[in-house]
C-alpha cells in the first residue's frame, strides 16, 4: 500500500477488522518520508503489521527502480524508528521453517530453539533462529505467495525492468469481479508450464506474472465487493490477514498484511 | 418568369415530399434514411477517408451497427441497486423506531461475503415453537423402523445413540441473547436459530470457513448437525463466552435467586450503579481488572450442567458426554466451569498450557497522548476479538474469520474403529486338529464315563422300581 495513499486506502481494507489509529497514521506519514529520503527509495510502501504477543511489528517496504527486484523491508515498533531486515537466503528459510513455531513474540532478539539431540541420527542437532530472521522470512514468503496486483498495473520493459504502468486506468467493474485479472506480484512459477495455445493470448508486457486463478487449492482467495460495491476486496485464505483492494476504473490498488504471520496450513480442511 | 417560378416551386415541393418520404421512420429500427445519410456524410466529412466510394457501404453498415450497439448498452447499464441508497433508507427507520438494546456487533468474514452480527437481549414472550418441530422428527424415525420386522432378521446394530443433551431455554445460558445477521449494511436482518449443545460440541471439533450463505450445508467430519446458520450461531456462542469481557466492578452479581441453589452457578448480573471506572493504565497492565460477563460453556455444550443419567426410562450408566475422558459408571461428576465475573487473570493459567500462548494481549492505544488513550485488550485465542475500556465505557467487538486459534496445525479427529463383524467366541475361533493319541485318549475317557453312567442308571432304575 503506497505510503502517500495510506490515509484513504486504509479505509478500503478496514473491512478485515484491522486499521491504524490516528497516531500511527500521522507518525507513518512523517517517518516514511524520511525513510524514502535516507535510503534513496523510489517509493515506499506501508507493507503491514505482524501482531506479536507483546509488541507488534510494523513493516515498510522500499522499492527501487525495478519494482520486483529492488525491494528492501524494514520494521519498526513505534512507526518512527526503522530497522532494516536481513536479506533472505535459502538456508535461513529452512532454519526458520524447522525451528520457529507458534506466535511471534514481539522481541527481535528472541531465540527459537529446536533441540533434536534426543532423537538419533539427526545431523543438525540444535537449530537456533532469532525472531528477526523469522520476520524477514515471513515477510518474504507472504510477498512471494500472496502479494496481489490487478492485471496491467505493472509493465515489464524489453530490458526486463518491472515498473509501474502509468497508463493503467483500472479494471472495469466486470473485469474486477474475476480472479484471472489479478496477478501475483512475484517471480512467476507456473507461467512456463502453460501451453503455447494459452500463451498466445498473453501480452508479454503485462502478462509476465502468475494469475491468482491458477492457485492451488482452488478457492484460496475470497473476492468481494465492499463499500457499496465500489471497491473490490481480495482476501487470502492461505495467509489470513492479507487484504488487497482495487477500486475499479481507477488506478488505485494495493495490499496490506495485518495478521499473526502464520500460514494457514489447515486450508484444505476448511474449504 | 412565372413558368420558371412555378417550376422551381414544383421542384421544391417535390424535393420536400421526397424529404418527407426519407424522413419516414422504419417500423423496426426506428431510424430514418435522411438522418442516416446526413450522419454518414458528416462522418465522411469528418474523417475524409481514402477511396470513399469503396468503403461507403462498410461505413454505412458500421453506422447502423453502432446505433444498435448503443441501444444494447443502454439496456445493460440499467441502474444497479445502490446499496448506499438502501442503507440510507434503513438508517432512516433506525431513527424512528424504538429498537431492542443492541449490545455488541460482530463481523464474521466469509469466503464469498461477510456477516454482520448484532446481539440483542431476549425479550420475554417471543416465539418458542422450535421444540415442537424436533419432536416431530423423532417420531418419524421411529415409524420407519417399525416396518422392517417382517423381513429376515438383519444383524442389529448394537450402537445406541447417546442421549441428546437438552437445549438451553431461550434467555438462559448459551441462548441468553438472540442474534441477527445481515450481509451488508442496508440489507434485511435475519434471525439466527438458537443453539443446541450438540452443535457446540461439533463446532469445537471442526474448522471450516464461512461462505456467506446461511443455507450452505456444512460438510465436515465429525458431521455437524445443521447448516451454516447453525454453525454461525454455535461459533458466536463460543466467541461470546470466550471473549466478552468488562472492567471489574462494572457488573455485579444479580441478587434475586442466586442463594437458593448452591450448586448452580450465578447466571445473572446487573449494572453496578456505583461503578467509578478504573484508570486506563491499570486496565492495560493487569488482566485481573477485567472479568468475563458471559457464562463459560462447559464440555457438555451447555452453560449449566445437566445430569443425563437421571433421565427417566434410560440406563443409568449411559454416558451423556461424548468428550469426557473418565468413564464414570454410576454418577457422572457434575461439570463446573468458572463462575460468572471471573477475572481474566484466572483463565490465563489454564489456557497457556495449550499453545504456549497467553490468551490475552493488553495495550494502551496511544503512547504519546496517554490522557486520551483507551485500554485495548486483544484475544489471542480468538483472533479478531477486541475489547476496549475507557473510564466507565467499555465495548466488545469481533471482526474475524470465526475460527479459534488452533496452535500447530489442525488434525481432524479419526473416525471410530469399525464395528466387529461377529462376536468372537469359543465356537467360532479356529482350533488345532487333535492328534491320534489325543483322540484315542478322549475316546477312552468317554467310554469310561459311559460305563460309569450305565452303572448309575442301573441303580437308579432299581430304586425307581422300589418306589413304585
Mean pLDDT across residues of chain A: 85
How many individual β-strands of chain B?
12
Outline the biggest β-sheet of chain B.
Answer: 8 strands, mixed
Percent helix of chain B, as a range, is 25-40%
Number of domains of chain A: 2
Q: What's the tally of helices of chain A? A: 7
Radius of gyration of chain A: 19 Å
Strands of the widest sheet of chain A, in order across it, are 4-3-2-1-14-13-12-11
How does the helix and strand content of chain B classify structurally?
alpha+beta
| Quaternary organization | heterodimer
Secondary-structure-derived class of chain A: alpha+beta
Structural Rg of chain B: 41 Å
Describe this structure in words.
- The complex is a heterodimer of chains A (271) and B (468).
- Chain A is α+β, with helices and mostly antiparallel strands and 271 residues long.
- Chain A has 2 domains: 209 residues, no CATH class; 48 residues, no CATH class.
- In chain A, 24% of the residues lie in helices and 26% in strands.
- Chain A contains 7 helices and 14 strands.
- The two termini of chain A are 28 Å apart.
- The relative contact order of chain A is 0.15.
- The model of chain A has no long low-confidence stretch (mean pLDDT 85).
- By secondary structure, chain B is an alpha+beta fold.
- Among the domains of chain B are: 73 residues, no CATH class; 232 residues, no CATH class.
- Chain B has 10 helices and 12 strands.
- An 8-stranded mixed β-sheet of chain B has the order 4-3-2-1-12-11-10-9.
- In chain B, strand 3 and strand 4 form a beta hairpin.
- The radius of gyration of chain B is 41 Å and the shape is flat.
- At the A-B interface, loops of A face helix 4 of B.
